[in-house]
Amino acid sequence: MCLPANREEDRIRRRALWVSLIVATTCAATWPSLAAASSPVSSGFSREAVWNAATDDWEPTVATAPTSSWVYEMTTRYGGPKMCGEVPRLRHCLVFRSSRDGGVTWSADRVMCPPCAGVHGQNDPQVKVADDGTVYAAWMNNYDVMFARSTDHGRTWIGVRNLRELSGLRWNDKPILAISPDGRDVYVAFNRSDAFVMASHDHGRTFGAAVKINVDGRYWFAEGGVVAADGGVYFSESAEHQRGLGDVRLAVLKSSDGGASWVTTFVARSQERPDCDVPDCPVDFYGAQANIAVDVNGTIIVAYVANTRPDAPQRMYVITSKDGVHFSAPVHVSPGGAAVGANFPAVAAGPKAGDFRLAFQDDRRGVDVWNTWYVRTTDGGATWTPAVRLSNVPGGAPYKTRRGHGFPYGDYGGIAVDRRGVTDVIWGEADGYAGPGGTWSARGV
């Protein structure tokens, strides 16, 4: 059995080698100025901006405060000047920053390391914000899922919990975080091949036992999570075969009793993913994914990718539900791509009922030409706006051209909508799986 955990270890080893070869030259180079690039701004959105042109960043996430103008971002940093500060032996780390003015200006980067004794690498950041402004985070220290919260906008972190130790499992992977609006109820979905969820009902101070979800022998990945106003909690997940080949089943998990029990609804099936033909790319990198959001009226939306023939390009679909069990027919929101099609959906609800925002990457502009796109609905998913290209800067990094970038850097990005209805989207760009690449973002409606 070839566990994705072993593939992750191989990825870290390969990427560490790449970093040792490129950091000395990449970080010393003078990159083209973003200000010098010329491209029309997509209607309603800012020009995309790179977090740090001199660092090798991927797999970012973003969260906005429900009742203020604060914005928070985290990314995984593999290379760059003073990559992980003074933390010994930390080969790659999570970096956190905050903005008090809605993303206009940003704090200095802070390594997300409470604590880091014996930690060699960090991955898979998650950030959420409660109504009172408390920031909640989940991430990986080695193969331990971690949790913490901050009451001072991420300057310090308290209540650090090692969920792998609390669960009694030997390792775990890929956490997805969901919190109730008041922050009292905290849910973390993760996998150890099988799917698990752990819940807290005291703001993360204590957690209950890890509840196993599946019995099918597949390898599960959580990809989205949300808590509705009525307390119902939902996770969107994919279930692939252990070797990453063959069909993928897409599911929604629902709990109405605080995470004590879960109902699984399979909402779609995709055939075998398209090939990933760049060096070092894992066999399941383009595997079908699903993401989930819920609006103020309790309407649930799931955005997912699927194909109908093995190795064929995937398309992006959305389905909706009022109860998380019965779903509408799928609506197609992306064209077919040149080779791979669409993937990496990130969906969020806006401040009004029926308002959802969806960002994703696809290769519609040509083989090995990727871009990040944005669509929006204001009628609960029945109709969607034309796609806006967010990756709209033609330079500023060696992997960027006027057509797009060479590869989607990491297998997820993030999206959040603030109290005014402004959307923050964040994603990774590179030439290939092993990088180097960068974290990019844009803001708009």
General description of the model:
This protein has 445 residues and is mainly beta. The chain has one domain (4-55, 123-147, 161-444): Neuraminidase, CATH 2.120.10. The chain contains two helices and 29 strands. The chain has helices at residues 4-26, 163-167; strands spanning 49-50, 56-64, 71-79, 93-99, 110-111, 122-129, 135-141, 144-150, 158-162, 173-179, 186-192, 194-200, 211-212, 219-227, 233-240, 248-255, 263-270, 290-294, 300-306, 315-321, 331-332, 342-349, 356-362, 371-377, 388-389, 407-408, 414-417, 423-430, 437-444. The strands form seven sheets. Strands 1, 26, 27, 28 and 29 form a five-stranded antiparallel beta sheet that branches. A four-stranded antiparallel beta sheet has the order 2-3-4-5. A four-stranded antiparallel beta sheet has the order 6-7-8-9. The longest helix is centred in the first third of the chain and has 23 residues, at 4-26. It starts with a helix and ends with a strand. Residues 1-42 have low confidence and may be disordered.
Count of helical stretches: 2
How far the N terminus sits from the C terminus, by CA atoms, comes to 45 Å
What is the strand tally?
Answer: 29
Global geometry? globular
CATH architecture: 6 Propeller
Low-confidence stretches: 1-42
- Strand content is 35-45%
CATH class placement:
Mainly Beta
Mean pLDDT: 90
Question: What does the largest sheet look like?
Answer: 5 strands, antiparallel
Oligomer: single chain
The tally of structural domains comes to 1
CATH T-level fold name: Neuraminidase
Helix share of residues? Answer: under 10%
**Cα-atom radius of gyration:** 20 Å
Classification by helices and strands: mainly beta
